[in-house]
Each structure stands twice: as structure tokens, then as C-alpha cells.
Write a structure and sequence with these properties.
The protein has 235 residues and is an alpha/beta fold. It is built from 8 helices and 7 strands. A hairpin with a 5-residue loop joins β3 and β4.
């Protein structure tokens, strides 16, 4: 497995994430700048071969899905990718921010759009039109175990695989992080939200960092096994 290790520094904490590269090695080769315009409309089709057609623009922004569970540094990684390729675009958890919302999303997709995965291509078409000067457009997909096996999810993966054979391909970045580090991060965020001192989970100034250093963080180790097993089932 080819990995790109990205160190994200928050105050005194260093998060090290492993980014598994599928097709991303050459995703940032071209910076489009101000000339990168999308001429596609909702009705125009780019025909790559006799079997695959789509509204995707081969000359437009690269198409990326950032696949990662929560508290893995995906938001900061998405910011980094956007900044390095021309323009930062919103970090959207399009398929759902938790397992229930993810299941609702794929149930909705199956009921209203079918299970052929074409709605994912249409999503990328809209993003290309909305951000024509960006080097990369896309969204985050949290691969929860229950919804990842949903027929609409399987259909989306098959459609993405089909698009990988033509231009432009849809590329997937799979990010992983040590599960114990994820639980520590979750505990820090939950504690910060419930704190009477209103500690922010992410700090941008010394006062906030000092407050975190003075806070005595205690990890309830007696309750680690169940969430670790749940995370294992979701990967």
C-alpha cells in the first residue's frame, strides 16, 4: 500500500494520518488557474466511448472522493488538497455524517435515483460547474459498515470503477488513523462541547491552547473495548 503521511498539528497535539493513494498520485499535476472554465451545461454530454457518457468535463477540476471515518484529519486534509491545487472548496460530508444519516442517504438515493450510481456522477458535474477554477472538487464519504454494503453504495462504487477507465476518472483517497487516536479525539471533542468553560476542540490562538494544556483530560479506559469493536466493524 502506498501511503502519504500527513502531520496535522493542533496546539500540542500531532495527528498523523495515513492517506492511501488510489489514483491521487497525479491528481495535482495540473493547476488550472483562472483559465479553467467549465462549458458544460446540464444537458451537454461528454462521450468517452460508446458505453460511457456523462456531463463531466475532462478539462475541468479533478474529481476526488475523500473516504474516511470521523476524527481522522479529513477536514484539514481536504483544505490542504484544495489550497495546493488552486482553490479550496467546501468540505462536505455528502453521504452522511454518522451511520444513521448515511443509511438514510443511501435509502433516499435508492428510492429516488436508483442504484446505478449515476447520481454520484451528476453530483460531480454540479461541483465542476460551481467551482470551475478549482484544481479539485469532491466530497467526503464516511464508509460506515452498514451503509457501505447498501445496494446504492455498491452501485456507486461500480459506477466510479467504470468511470476510472475513461476521462475524467473519479479518484478515491482513503484515509485511516489509529482507532485509539480516533477515540481520544472523539473524547476530547465531546468533553469540550460539554465543558462549562466552553473549550473549543480546535485552537487558533495561544489562550485556547493554554486552556487545553491546563485541562486534565481523562480517558475512560474501562469503556474502550466496545467502541473499538464498533469502529472495527465500520472499517
Amino acid at each position: 500500500m502506498k501511503c502519504l503521511y500527513i502531520a496535522l498539528v493542533f496546539g500540542s497535539l500531532i495527528i498523523l494520518s495515513c492517506v492511501e493513494l488510489f489514483h491521487f498520485l497525479h491528481a495535482a499535476e495540473t493547476i488550472y488557474g483562472s483559465q479553467g472554465r467549465i462549458n458544460a451545461t446540464a444537458s451537454s454530454l461528454f462521450v468517452d466511448d460508446e458505453n460511457v457518457t456523462s456531463c463531466l468535463d475532462p478539462e475541468g477540476p479533478k474529481l476526488i472522493i475523500l473516504m474516511s471515518l470521523g476524527r481522522s484529519g479529513s477536514g484539514s486534509t481536504w483544505q490542504l488538497i484544495g489550497a495546493l491545487t488552486g482553490e479550496e472548496t467546501p468540505s462536505e460530508e455528502w453521504t452522511g455524517s454518522n451511520s444513521n444519516k448515511s443509511m438514510d442517504f443511501f435509502e433516499y438515493v435508492a428510492e429516488n435515483y436508483g442504484t446505478d450510481g449515476e447520481v454520484f456522477v451528476e453530483k460531480f458535474c454540479r461541483l465542476q460547474r460551481e467551482y470551475p477554477n478549482a484544481g479539485v472538487v469532491g466530497f467526503k464519504w464516511k464508509p460506515f459498515g452498514s451503509s457501505f454494503r447498501h445496494p446504492a453504495s455498491i452501485g456507486a462504487l461500480k459506477r466510479i470503477s467504470q468511470q476510472a477507465k475513461v476521462n475524467p476518472p473519479i479518484q478515491i483517497i482513503h484515509m485511516t488513523r489509529n482507532p485509539l487516536d480516533v477515540l481520544i479525539s472523539q473524547h476530547k471533542h465531546n468533553t469540550a462541547k460539554a465543558s462549562h468553560e466552553k473549550l473549543r476542540a480546535h485552537c487558533h490562538e495561544q489562550e485556547c491552547q493554554k486552556a487545553h494544556l491546563e485541562k486534565k483530560w481523562t480517558l475512560p479506559t474501562q469503556h474502550l473495548i466496545h467502541p473499538l469493536e464498533r469502529m472495527k466493524n465500520d472499517t
